[in-house]
């Protein structure tokens, strides 16, 4: 019997949302020492990991954290795009992808907020 057969995913969208925030949290933790430990990167990483946990465990407070992360991600992404788009196209592309995925997963989490009740 494989591990995948033991794990039953009731809502694949909520699971994908939690995976997205977990991956973002891990990526930002990796970027933390590479960018000289700026506190805003640490806050985004920490909030993303907590949001991933909350979404995975279907906690009602997770939607509020996702909304907070939506505004933080927009501010961070727009700042990064303004200062680095013409200098580093790969970084700009990554930030655009992060921004679009944040919009998509925030909209999905907001639409499915009724299923996040404990």
Features:
single chain, 118 residues, mainly alpha, 5 helices, globular
Can you offer a commentary on this structure?
The chain has one domain (11-111). It starts with a helix and ends in a 7-residue tail after the last helix. The model has no long low-confidence stretch (mean pLDDT 88). The protein is globular, with a radius of gyration of 15 Å. By secondary structure, the chain is mainly alpha-helical. It has 5 helices and no strands.
How is the secondary structure organized here?
Elements: H1 3-6, H2 12-34, H3 39-56, H4 62-84, H5 89-111
Helix pairs in contact: 2-3, 2-5, 3-4, 4-5
| Estimated structural class | mainly alpha
- Average pLDDT figure: 88
Shape: globular
- Whole-number radius of gyration? 15 Å
Query: What is the number of beta strands?
Result: 0
Question: Which regions have little confidence, pLDDT < 50, spanning 5+ residues?
Answer: none
Count of DSSP-assigned helices: 5
Biggest sheet details: none
Counted up, domains total 1
Give the termini separation: 30 Å
The amount of helix comes to over 70%
Strand content: under 5%
Summarize the helix and strand pattern as letters.
HHHHH
Oligomer: single chain
Q: TL;DR of this structure?
A:
This protein is mainly α. It has one domain (11-111). The protein is built from 5 helices and no strands.
């Amino acid at each position: 019997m494989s591990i995948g057969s033991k794990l039953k995913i009731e809502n694949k969208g909520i699971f994908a949302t939690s995976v997205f925030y977990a991956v973002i949290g891990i990526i930002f933790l990796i970027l933390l020492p590479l960018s000289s430990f700026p506190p805003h990167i640490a806050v985004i990483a920490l909030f993303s990991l907590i949001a991933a946990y909350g979404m995975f465990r279907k906690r009602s407070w997770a939607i509020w954290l996702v909304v907070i992360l939506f505004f933080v991600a927009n501010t961070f992404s727009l700042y990064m795009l303004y200062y680095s788009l013409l200098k580093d196209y790969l970084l700009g592309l990554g930030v655009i992808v992060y921004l679009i995925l944040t919009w998509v997963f925030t909209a999905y989490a907001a639409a499915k907020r009724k299923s996040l009740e404990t």
